[in-house]
User: Which sequence fits this backbone?
């Protein structure tokens, strides 16, 4: 029986060299900056945070998937903008603005834009884009534009026509009036907070129009000078108690690329004020300077001597399976994986594995297979690797031929060929003959770490941050039964205190500030979950306990998601009881039966669609629509909106629940192995309508990373 | 080293900041970051020592296996690799700090754990050219991109050879030096091989990829030495 061919033993012999090389190799993960790019590789961002000259837009899009964050300010105005190039042509914007003195107060405004590239720049034709700024239509930035930009070497010229805000200076009668007279008048802005958030298409492209335009000149790859004529009169800012004055339609400025992602812009605006802006652009397709990561090298495939394949002598050795199991377990642990059950027959070896902190499932499969090739007797030709979630739910099985591994390890096209020869199937039905490991259960883990929680857009404190310590732990007494919980102690917070709710609905979320004011330790969550598989393609769980800071109760979910399907269907039913503000064990009177039927679909272009229809916490019925752009490195960026039978008026500010969301695995950014991820949903307003219970044990995201199409998407890492 | 360290520190701080943002510090990752940060700080003022100057044949004898010393100028690092496993004519070499390279007849066909690894390389033509076949030769490299997709880069290479003297195995050797100039649509690079009379590449400088730069290796010991 071949022994383990690990490098560990040799490490010990290399004592003299180890400290030396360890010190030197520490910096192996550092590398060069990405080479500088030509000035027009992506357009400059204007002071509205979108591709533009200074305050006016231009037509070129950002690079596909570019995510830009900008923060800029001038007289009594502070704008922060997120711009995401959703597709090569379509981009979306979320903007949060503070106007000091607008409407006689410290005014905060949130707005969403959409931009669409109608035509790419051609040899003789300009790039043409159309934009809907603040397309809710009732916000202060509401405006539409059609803009064309043409590049002449180092010079870029832009001209456009705008409506609404962009038609407010030197405007003329709307030329669209030739189609229908109603285009000539823009319905008056309602400008009441209760009206915001409604998409009022009856405003779009209405009212007076005006021309705008400008020039940009690239002095070199980093420095761009800009001059523009703006068609925005800043009428409402000028007439309010803000100090802003509009003296001239001409703006002058420059943009300087400090690093590949960081730009600094400065300008003299409207003949009255200086402005400055920093913007950072990040592309989720290239999140790290170390593609493939810096995690440790895999064990090589062990090549069987040809004459050994028919040797079955080892099958007579009674403890062979146990020796193989314990050695395999040790080697997988050294690579951050856990061996669950194991079984071996004359020609087949089966391993159930939890992939732990391995950054990709395909990479984990490749590594398990290589370790098995080092350990398994030569007669074993087939490896069956069952992938188990971190919570003990067996999901899928990858079947590999050992001779394929031997043949393809260093084959130039080894990744694709190994994918073509692998078989991915449901983990059910289970294969017989596997040993249940001794002493593997109970499993437990715990951590004590700082936490930083944040909430946004409270006008008294736009970013509320709370720093504290969190003790969390989980115990799995038997496979699939998980008890987990977390206790938090707030240390410091810049919270502006309790904000009384004005909601006419049951206060299912708007009392959130009451939950944040406790200075005592709080029970963040404490749940018991039983995961199980009722049958092929089907996954299920029952969770009871304290789900989240505001609700506890009982939750059941069933999910249908075949191993090779892009479509998943789920059903979840919960009984939720509102928790006391102190977040101890106590409950308050409000209880609700809430639940959703969900459909999930991952389209071939890596856009993910989700619909959840059902009953929400405030006993309202409706549906949530979500769309996310997903990257095969695990990063997801998306948006969601919920419409329920709560009227826009009863909902209050914002009219309906909506927001944008991010999911970023830390390993994608650093290249280092980690199972930490940042997950955030940003809502302009948190209200009570369309509020969904938060249950941390939902099945879909846990399950699908071990299935298709995710496995195929990352199969390039099989040999990494 | 200063710039390299600064980058490492920046990555660590990013990591820390993100862990904080995440509001969670699952398992030991948090501690790992603190430990890495501590090590990075501790190494701040230390002068770099050239491994080559302290290594002796006696030290290598303990390994009982062939050893090569690799230098990565772009990264400012040196790594010792020990021959591990053979698969056909592909030989994988492992470092004590868990990096790996794979050589085919002395020609680099893969790296692992470098960050920006060469996943595989088709060097059939290259090996024939090193053995004296007339060029030009085609070279095909495969890398992972930021989304874990394999990207294929092809290069056309030509060769020139001249007699030379090279240091390897702790002595001066009469060798043939082969220079390889490769050009592709995006990058071009130059490799050098010092080939002993036996046909073995005893020393070489080979380009891995844009993220890692070149790797220079020198054979320090052979099976025959043990």
Assistant:
């Amino acid at each position: 029986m071949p022994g383990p061919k690990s490098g560990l033993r040799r490490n010990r012999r290399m004592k003299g060299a180890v400290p030396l090389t360890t010190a030197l190799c520490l910096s192996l993960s550092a590398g060069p900056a990405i080479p500088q790019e030509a000035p027009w590789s992506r357009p400059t961002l204007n002071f509205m945070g979108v591709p533009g000259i200074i305050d006016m837009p231009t037509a070129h899009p950002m690079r596909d998937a570019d995510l830009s964050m900008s923060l800029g300010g001038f007289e009594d105005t502070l704008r922060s903008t997120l711009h995401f190039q959703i597709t090569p042509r379509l981009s979306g914007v979320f903007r949060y603005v503070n106007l000091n003195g607008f409407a006689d107060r410290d005014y905060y405004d949130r707005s969403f834009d959409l931009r669409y590239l109608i035509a790419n720049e051609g040899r003789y034709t300009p790039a043409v884009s159309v934009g809907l700024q603040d397309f809710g239509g009732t916000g202060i930035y509401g405006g539409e534009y059609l803009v064309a930009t043409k590049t002449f070497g180092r010079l870029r010229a832009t001209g456009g026509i705008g409506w609404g805000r962009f038609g407010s200076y030197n405007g003329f009668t709307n030329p669209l009036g030739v189609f229908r007279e109603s285009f000539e008048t823009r319905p008056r802005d309602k400008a009441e907070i209760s009206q915001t958030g409604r998409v009022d298409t009856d405003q779009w492209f209405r009212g007076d129009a005006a021309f705008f335009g400008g020039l940009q000149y690239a002095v070199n790859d980093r420095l761009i000078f800009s001059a523009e004529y703006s068609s925005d009169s800043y009428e409402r800012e000028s007439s309010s108690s803000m100090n802003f004055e509009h003296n001239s339609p001409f703006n002058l400025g420059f943009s300087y690329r400090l690093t590949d992602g960081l730009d600094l812009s400065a300008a003299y605006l409207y003949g009255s004020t200086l402005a400055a802006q920093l913007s950072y652009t990040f592309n989720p397709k290239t999140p790290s300077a170390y593609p493939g990561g810096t995690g440790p090298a895999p064990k090589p495939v062990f090549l069987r001597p040809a004459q050994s394949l028919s040797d079955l002598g080892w099958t007579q050795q009674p403890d062979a399976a146990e020796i193989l199991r314990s050695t395999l377990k040790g080697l997988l642990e050294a690579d951050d994986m856990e061996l669950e059950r194991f079984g071996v027959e004359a020609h087949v070896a089966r391993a159930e594995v939890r992939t732990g902190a391995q950054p990709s499932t395909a990479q984990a499969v490749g590594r398990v297979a290589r370790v098995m090739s080092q350990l398994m007797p030569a007669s074993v030709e087939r490896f069956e690797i069952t992938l188990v979630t971190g919570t003990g739910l067996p999901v899928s099985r990858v079947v590999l031929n050992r001779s394929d591994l031997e043949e393809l390890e260093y084959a130039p096209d080894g990744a694709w060929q190994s994918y073509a020869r692998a078989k991915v199937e449901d983990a059910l039905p289970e294969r017989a003959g596997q040993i249940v490991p001794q002493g593997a259960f109970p499993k437990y883990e715990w951590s004590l770490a700082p936490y930083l929680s944040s909430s946004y857009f409270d006008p008294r404190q736009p970013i509320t941050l709370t720093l504290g310590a969190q003790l969390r732990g989980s115990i799995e007494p038997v496979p699939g039964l998980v008890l987990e919980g977390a206790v938090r102690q707030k240390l410091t917070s810049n919270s502006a205190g309790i904000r009384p709710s004005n909601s006419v609905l049951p206060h299912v979320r708007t009392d959130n500030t009451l939950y944040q004011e406790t200075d005592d330790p709080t029970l963040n969550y404490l749940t018991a979950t039983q995961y199980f598989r009722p049958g092929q393609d089907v996954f299920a769980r029952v969770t009871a306990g304290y789900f989240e800071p505001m609700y506890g109760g009982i939750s059941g979910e069933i999910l249908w998601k075949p191993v090779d399907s892009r479509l998943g269907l789920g059903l979840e039913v919960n009984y939720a009881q509102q928790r006391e503000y102190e977040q101890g064990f106590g409950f308050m009177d409000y209880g609700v039966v809430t639940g959703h039927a969900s459909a999930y679909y991952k389209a071939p272009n890596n856009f993910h669609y989700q619909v959840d229809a059902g009953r929400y916490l405030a006993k309202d019925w409706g549906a949530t629509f979500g769309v996310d752009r997903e990257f095969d490195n695990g990063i997801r960026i998306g948006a969601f909106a919920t419409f329920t039978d709560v009227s826009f008026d009863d909902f209050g500010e914002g009219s309906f629940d909506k927001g944008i969301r991010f999911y970023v695995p830390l390993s994608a950014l650093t290249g280092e192995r980690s199972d930490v991820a940042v997950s955030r949903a940003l809502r302009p307003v948190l209200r009570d309508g369309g509020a969904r219970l938060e249950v941390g044990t939902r099945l879909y995201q846990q399950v699908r990373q071990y299935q298709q199409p995710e496995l195929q998407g990352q199969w390039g890492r099989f040999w990494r | 080293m200063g710039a390299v360290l600064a980058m490492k520190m920046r990555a660590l701080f990013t990591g820390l900041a993100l862990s904080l943002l995440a509001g969670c510090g699952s398992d030991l990752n948090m501690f790992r970051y603190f430990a890495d940060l501590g090590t990075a700080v501790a190494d701040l003022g230390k002068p770099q020592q050239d491994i080559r100057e302290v290594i002796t044949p006696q030290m290598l004898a303990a390994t009982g296996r062939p050893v090569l010393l690799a230098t990565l100028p772009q990264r400012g690092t040196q790594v010792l690799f020990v021959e591990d496993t053979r698969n056909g004519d592909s030989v994988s070499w492992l470092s004590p700090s868990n990096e790996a390279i794979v050589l085919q007849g002395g020609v680099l066909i893969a790296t692992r754990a470098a960050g920006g690894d060469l996943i595989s390389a088709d060097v059939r033509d290259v090996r024939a050219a090193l053995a004296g076949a007339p060029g030009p030769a085609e070279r095909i490299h495969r890398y992972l991109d930021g989304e874990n997709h394999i990207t294929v880069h092809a290069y056309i290479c030509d060769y020139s050879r001249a007699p030379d003297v090279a240091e390897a195995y702790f002595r001066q050797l009469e060798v043939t030096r082969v220079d390889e100039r490769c050009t592709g649509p995006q990058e071009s690079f130059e490799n050098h091989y010092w080939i002993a009379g036996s046909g073995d590449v005893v020393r070489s400088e080979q380009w891995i990829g844009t993220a890692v730069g070149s790797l220079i290796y020198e054979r320090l010991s052979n099976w025959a030495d043990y």
Notes: Residues 1-37 of chain A have pLDDT under 50 and may be disordered. Chain A touches chain B through 90 residues (CB under 8 Å). Residues 522-712 of chain A form a domain with the Porin fold (CATH 2.40.160). Chain A has three domains: 39-189+202-282, 293-440, 522-712.
